[in-house]
């Protein structure tokens, strides 16, 4: 494992993760869908934004703190829900949750986690849970009851996966769910012994092949196996009625993730959503979708006074976080950046990624002439 101290930014972590992981697994995390137009645009949109900084402002003492859903925290971040975590590091969900707790930010446990939600709850810190609506709603609502009993603070319902994404590179390299073993993939795994023995080998020795740990009994299929039927597949007929039902069944903060339109954000808030995640799913779903940062201003203007607006997709620098907050977000969800760190160094690697982003954000505030996050505004931004 390379020394984390010599990995100076998220791009360094990404390259280190690429070396450590088998190609199929790295690409599943790193790449987008179809022609990857949206993936490129997520970064290009951030890079088009420039600061028009203030000078001689009193910024010797700076604060990165914010308040999310009534609770203060030291950084304007949360960890996004990411189902591949458990394939990058043994029990990667636990490592990410502990890294988040050490930084004082929420961790969002995914429905498709390979570590059961009750065990993740033992990691401490602020815990959110991400829910997909399954075809058999009864199973989804039973899962919701488990989430409540385990003490999760907030529910994040993902609404932007209306159909199976067209991830062509997964078909080429054989990495999809379930994973399709092949000679080429097998040889690639053998060329990555640290991953083979440190991740897959540990699962096999301790608890068997990784599986969908949060699924109901009879549906916890291993990563190489098909589920018995489609009861726990994402429901293609999910509608606003499902959001309304979740609002009735869930007593804590309800966050709707995957919104890119102001009218959809308004509808979610009308149905009782406490938070909106402006997100194009990290460009992993719809290759022609607008970038999240470009969609953010209209949504923040529409619902920012009534709900907590968050953003994900494309965050690679602390300055990206500042740009999102200046556009109206309260905080951001960190996705791939945390996964790269996780793949390289587990909990310590994920924490290193978060510290890099925090340090860059702090420097951005200093250069922009902002003593705190509330002093960030659109007057500081210009577009190329």
Q: Can you give a write-up of this model?
A:
This protein is of the alpha/beta class and 384 residues long. The chain has one domain (4-169, 228-383): TIM Barrel (Alpha-Beta Barrel). Helices cover 43% and strands 12% of the residues. It has 15 helices and twelve strands. It has helices at residues 10-20, 23-30, 37-48, 85-88, 92-103, 117-121, 137-149, 168-173, 183-190, 193-206, 240-249, 262-270, 292-303, 318-326, 336-368; strands at 49-51, 66-68, 71-73, 77-79, 107-109, 127-131, 154-158, 254-259, 275-278, 308-311, 331-334, 381-383. The strands form three sheets. It has an eight-stranded parallel beta sheet with strand order 4-11-10-9-8-7-6-5. α5 (92-103) packs parallel to α15 (336-368), α12 crosses α13 and α14 (318-326) crosses α15. It is globular, with a radius of gyration of 20 Å. The model has no long low-confidence stretch (mean pLDDT 94).
Defining key terms:
single chain, 384 residues, eight-stranded parallel sheet, 43% helix
């Amino acid at each position: 494992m390379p020394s984390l101290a010599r990995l100076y930014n998220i791009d360094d972590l990404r390259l280190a993760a690429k070396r450590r992981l088998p190609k199929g697994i790295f690409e599943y995390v790193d790449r987008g869908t179809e022609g990857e137009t949206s993936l490129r645009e997520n970064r290009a949109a951030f890079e088009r934004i420039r600061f028009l900084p203030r000078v001689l402002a009193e910024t010797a003492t700076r604060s990165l703190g914010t308040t999310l859903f009534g609770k203060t925290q030291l950084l304007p971040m949360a960890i996004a829900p990411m189902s591949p975590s458990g394939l990058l590091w043994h029990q990667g969900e636990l490592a990410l949750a502990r890294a988040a707790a050490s930084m004082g930010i929420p961790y969002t446990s995914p429905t498709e986690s390979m570590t059961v939600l009750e065990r993740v709850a033992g990691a401490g810190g602020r815990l959110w849970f991400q829910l997909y609506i399954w075809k058999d709603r009864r199973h989804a609502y039973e899962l919701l009851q488990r989430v409540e009993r385990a003490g999760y603070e907030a529910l994040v319902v993902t609404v932007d996966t209306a159909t199976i994404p067209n991830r062509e590179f997964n078909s080429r390299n054989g990495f999809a769910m379930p994973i399709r073993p092949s000679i080429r993939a097998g040889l690639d795994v053998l060329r990555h012994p640290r991953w083979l023995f440190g991740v897959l080998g540990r699962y096999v020795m301790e608890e068997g092949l990784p599986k969908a740990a949060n699924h109901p009994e009879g549906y916890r299929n291993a990563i190489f196996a098909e589920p018995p039927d489609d009861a726990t597949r994402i429901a293609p007929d999910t509608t606003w009625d499902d959001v309304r039902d979740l609002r009735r069944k869930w007593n804590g903060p309800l966050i709707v993730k995957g919104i890119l339109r102001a009218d959809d954000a308004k509808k979610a808030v009308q149905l009782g959503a406490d938070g909106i995640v402006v997100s194009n799913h990290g460009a992993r779903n719809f290759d022609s979708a607008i970038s999240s940062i470009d969609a953010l201003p209209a949504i923040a203007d529409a619902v920012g006074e009534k709900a907590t607006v968050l953003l994900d997709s494309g965050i690679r620098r602390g300055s990206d976080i500042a740009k999102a907050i200046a556009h109206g977000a309260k905080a951001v969800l960190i996705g791939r950046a945390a996964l790269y760190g996780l793949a390289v160094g587990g909990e310590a690697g994920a924490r290193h990624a978060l510290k890099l982003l925090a340090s860059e954000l702090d420097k951005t505030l200093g250069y922009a002439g902002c003593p705190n996050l509330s002093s960030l505004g659109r007057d500081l931004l210009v577009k190329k």
